[in-house]
Structure formats: C-alpha cells, structure tokens
C-alpha cells in the first residue's frame, strides 16, 4: 500500500501566487464502499476518507460518477456526507453529486446536501433529455438559487450527451454560487478561454490533464486515480507549486501507465478503482449492477502498474 511521506500534509505556496481555491486543489472523486451484500459501508467510507485526507487530498467528492451515484438512493447520498464529515472534520472540503435529469429532484438533493453538512455540490448536466443551452442554463440557475451551497458544474458530454458550451459557462460564472467546473469536455482550448475570462475554479476531471490544466491556471483536479495513489498525484501539484516544472512533468509521466489502465482501457474508473482498493485491503467492496467487477487479467495489470509507482 502506498505510504504518505508527509510532504502533502502541508499547504504549499502556489507557484502563481494565487489564493487557494475554495474547495482545495487535490480532490478525490471517492468511490462509495459497499459491503459484500451490496449495502452502503459507512464505516468503510470513513476509513477510506481518513486515508485519502492523510495522504494529501484536501477535498473529497462523494456520489459522483466514480461514487456510483446513479445506483445510490437519496438517503444513502445524505448518509455518506454525514459520516464522511464526521471522519474528516474540517481537514478537507466535501462536495457531493446532486445532478439528475429532473430539476425538481436536483433541487431537493441540493437542500439535503446542505442539511447533511456538505461544503458544496457537484452538478452534472441533465442526461438523456439533452436540453438546449438556454434550458440547461435555466436548470443550473434554478438549482443555484435554491440553496446556499457553492456549485461546481460538471461538464462531461461523453456521458450526459450535452455539452456545457463555453458561452454558457461565461454567463453562468456571473452567478455568485456557481464557482467551479469539473472539466471532462476534452476541449482544452475552451477550458483556457473560460479560465482566462472568469474566476471559476477549473478542475481537471480527466487525470491525464491534471498537470496540463493546472499549468494554464486550473485549480487542481478531481481525480478517480487518487483513490489509490493520492500522495503521488498531489506530489505533481506540489512540485509545480515549488517551481520545479520538470519534476512535476516527470511525476505526471510516471503516473501515466496507471492512469491509462484505470481510465482508458475499456473499464469504468469505478470498476478499476474498486478492484485495486480491494486488492490492497482498503474499503471498496463490489460495484452495483449494471456494472460488473474487473476480471483477473485486468486486475493483475492494474496491480503491476500500481506497484510500479511505489
């Protein structure tokens, strides 16, 4: 199991001199642990959250794609926020995913997240219905108006079917509670355009972009791979903040084989993250249907890449 060397526990000076983002820099898109019987493993969630924070994560994102939000209930989502808050206290920010394809339901989840103790919410575009940009903007504004929590918009058109267009983001950035973006658009030019013209905290949502987006003014990352190597990914940002861009690039490149196997080898990141966590004795448990666990060959490949980073 990866050991934390202590360097990620301190808050480094930023290379750019900019203030720390509201939610932190090194955020993990945390898996949701389940028991072998498929129930929510709240004690396991606390243990995993404590480990992630101890090894460099200054923010945790619960009930996102990696957290299997489509197959967890509203009550499970709220319980997860409560127990993780108990575990990490004020040592890390907690965001929780609330996005659905129903605006009314999403408002309800935002209010429940606020009651449960979240610091913010991750809000994905409504999926399946594919609203046009004016309807998408209205959806986001209605939710932002409904609670006091700051919002990170989640742009992942490959899953939702709907892009949050750059011009829409520029307008939404004017809302006082829309403060961040998790970017999985794979449109690096658009990301730079929005970073340059707004104060939105832009987080890489694709681990291969962690350093690249940070280098052009991004806030950090919201990472699936951080579930298994949190200190290794945090070290990339720390090196860049210290002005050692060559070391930052080296560390990012070292992590590339594991990133590729976890995120681009045909299996969802939830499946690969849980496979590795189970192998090294950390809380994870099974995935919920319709997902299936990784096969032995895939697990062996993941383990080899993981051990190469130790």
From TrEMBL:
Record GO terms (molecular function): 4-hydroxy-tetrahydrodipicolinate synthase activity
E.C. designation(s): 4.3.3.7
Alphabetized UniProt keyword annotations: Amino-acid biosynthesis, Cytoplasm, Diaminopimelate biosynthesis, Lyase, Lysine biosynthesis, Schiff base
Localization (cell): Cytoplasm
SMART domains: DHDPS (SM01130)
Pathway: Amino-acid biosynthesis; L-lysine biosynthesis via DAP pathway; (S)-tetrahydrodipicolinate from L-aspartate: step 3/4
Source species, domain of life: Bacteria
One Pfam family in the UniProt entry: DHDPS
A Gene Ontology cellular-component term: cytosol
Active site: 154, 182
Enzyme class: lyase
One record GO biological process: diaminopimelate biosynthetic process
Chief location of this protein within or outside the cell: cytoplasm
Reactions listed under catalytic activity: L-aspartate 4-semialdehyde + pyruvate = (2S,4S)-4-hydroxy-2,3,4,5-tetrahydrodipicolinate + H2O + H(+)
Functional note: Catalyzes the condensation of (S)-aspartate-beta-semialdehyde [(S)-ASA] and pyruvate to 4-hydroxy-tetrahydrodipicolinate (HTPA).
Family that this chain belongs to: Belongs to the DapA family.
Known partners and oligomeric status: Homotetramer; dimer of dimers.
Protein name in UniProt: 4-hydroxy-tetrahydrodipicolinate synthase
């Amino acid at each position: 199991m990866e050991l934390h060397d202590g360097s990620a526990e301190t808050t480094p000076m930023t290379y750019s001199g900019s203030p720390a983002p509201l939610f932190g820099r090194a955020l993990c898109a945390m898996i949701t642990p389940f028991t072998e019987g498929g129930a929510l493993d709240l004690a396991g969630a606390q243990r995993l959250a404590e480990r992630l924070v101890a090894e460099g994560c200054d923010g945790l994102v619960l009930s996102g794609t990696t957290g299997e939000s489509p197959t967890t209930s509203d009550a499970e989502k709220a319980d997860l926020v409560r127990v993780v808050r108990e575990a990490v206290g004020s040592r890390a920010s907690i965001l929780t995913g609330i996005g659905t394809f129903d605006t009314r339901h999403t408002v309800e989840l935002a209010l429940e997240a606020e009651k449960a103790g979240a610091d913010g919410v991750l809000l994905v575009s409504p999926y399946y219905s594919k609203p046009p940009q004016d309807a998408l903007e209205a959806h986001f504004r209605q939710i932002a108006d409904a609670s006091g929590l700051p919002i990170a918009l989640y742009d992942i058109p490959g899953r939702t079917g709907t892009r949050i267009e750059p011009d829409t983001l520029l307008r939404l950035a004017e809302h006082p509670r829309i403060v961040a973006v998790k970017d999985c658009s794979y449109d690096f030019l658009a990301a730079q355009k929005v970073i340059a013209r707004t104060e939105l905290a832009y987080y890489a949502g694709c681990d291969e972009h962690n350093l690249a987006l940070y280098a052009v003014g991004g806030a950090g990352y919201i990472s699936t791979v951080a579930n298994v190597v949190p200190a290794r990914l945090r070290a990339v940002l720390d090196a860049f903040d210290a002005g050692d861009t060559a070391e930052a690039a080296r560390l990012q490149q070292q992590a590339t084989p594991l990133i590729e196997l976890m995120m681009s080898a045909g299996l969802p990141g939830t499946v690969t993250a849980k496979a590795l966590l189970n192998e090294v004795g950390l809380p994870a448990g099974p995935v919920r249907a319709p997902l299936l666990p990784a096969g032995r060959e895939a697990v062996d490949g993941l383990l080899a890449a993981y051990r190469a980073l130790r």
